[in-house]
Amino acid sequence: MDVHEPRLLLITLSALLLCIVDSYNTLLLLDLGGTELNPVMRELLEHDASLFFWVKYILTALCLIILVVHKRFILLRFVSGHTVIVAVLCGYAALIAYQYRLLDSI
Fold this sequence. Notes:
There is one protein chain. By secondary structure, the protein is mainly α. The chain has one domain. The chain has a two-stranded antiparallel sheet with strand order 1-2. A hairpin with a 3-residue loop joins β1 and β2. The longest helix is centred in the first third of the chain and has 26 residues. It is elongated. The chain starts with 5 loop residues before the first helix and ends with a helix. The relative contact order is 0.17.
């Protein structure tokens, strides 16, 4: 049985939480006149905001699960799954900081 350290769980759940915050901020920015730049997500938003949220959440969760399972695998010959999870967390943190700056400027 594969055992995962608590730090990896914290990092993974934090990335998933930031995904939820990103979705909320995206919807808020759209209500204030912003536009979604990702064409796939834009299409989902045009159909239903809850569909946008669930697709984004499920895709992120599935990708994180795959990365946790492969945390020690070397991907692309130089980076581990664990490192990619940390990069996802940092990417979401940077994106949310940018969204808050946008919200501050409105």
